[in-house]
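To: structure subgroup
Subject: Chain for Friday's discussion

All,

I'm putting the inputs and outputs inline so they're searchable in the archive.
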Amino acid sequence: MATELTGREKTLAKLKAIPQAAREAIKTALKANSDQIVGMQKRLVPTDSGDLRESIRAEWGDVKLASSANLSSAGGGMTIKGDPDLTVTIAAGDDKAYDARFVEFGTAPRDQGGWAEGTKHPGTTPRPFFYGPWRAMRKKSKSNVARAVNKAAKRVAAQ
């Protein structure tokens, strides 16, 4: 008795569509998650001139930050290694806002040089704004991505 397989082409087409649907779902989830993290960071950052707040951003792809004064978190823990289309880097600091790491971590007391030589700078207290929201949202962001992939797979399978 021969077994007849029906719907093979339709099933194969669905299986081929899942990776693309999953990629789109991941990208959408990463965008929403990074926007939420950046928004939290911008609300928490202390403002003087507003340059530091304006320097907080999410960048797509393999980003090499030019300044060592930048704070960055590759994707908020949400990167797909080796895939620049699904990589988000959240960064703070640029040429105008070079003090991002000093604001986040504070500075130690130190002897001053130059025109203030002989005096002691008291240091600054940390005013964290960057890593707190990233840590708070990391687990939720990962589950949002997983949920989006599952929904995309179910949507493709239901077609």
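Points worth raising on Friday:
Residues 4 and 102 are 69 Å apart (CA to CA).
Helices lie at 8-44, 51-55, 100-105, 131-158.

D.
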